[in-house]
Amino acid sequence: MAFSHGKSAQMFIDDVGGTERNFSTYISDTGLTRELDTADTSALGDTHHQFITGLVDGSFDLSGHYDPTVEGYINGLIAASQATQFKYFPAGSASGKTYYDGTAVCTSFNITTGIDDAASFTSAWKVSNRPTFGTA
């Protein structure tokens, strides 16, 4: 088995001008969620649920340390109401490592500033279409 520590993960997101930016130095937590819609087709008299499949959905969140550079990248995308390219490497981007490459829309950006901690941010993203799964 090839286990990997979370510190090796990398996330790249294009800015509003289409330039790929490495968000990895600003974030402390990310991931990729893939879900499949299901519709319950069970009927009276059934003893077990029955389902049919629907659309595939995807999303990811970013959280990390506040930085005006990241704020600028994300605010530019939100202001333009623009989807952008992302590339997520769960175990790093070295040769032979897997990645997901796709298009996403930033749906929220939040800055938190508490008196007892460093300023931080979170953002939520919805994946459009199917991301490509590949190997570096």
Oligomeric state of the chains? single chain
**What's the helix count?**
1
Biggest sheet layout: 8 strands, antiparallel
Write down the Rg: 18 Å
Low-confidence stretches: none
Q: How much β-strand is present in the residues?
A: over 45%
Mean pLDDT: 93
Q: Estimate the helix proportion, in percent.
A: under 10%
Order of helices and strands: EEEEEHEEE
Shape: globular
Q: What structural class do you assign from the helix and strand content?
A: mainly beta
- Tell me the span between the first and last alpha carbons: 18 Å
The count of DSSP E runs of length 2 or more, i.e. the number of strands, is 8
Which helices and strands, and how do they pair?
Layout (H helix, E strand, L loop, with lengths): L9 E5 L5 E3 L4 E4 L2 E8 L10 E15 L2 H12 L4 E6 L8 E15 L7 E16 L1
Antiparallel strand pairs: 1-2, 1-6, 3-5, 4-5, 5-8, 6-7, 7-8
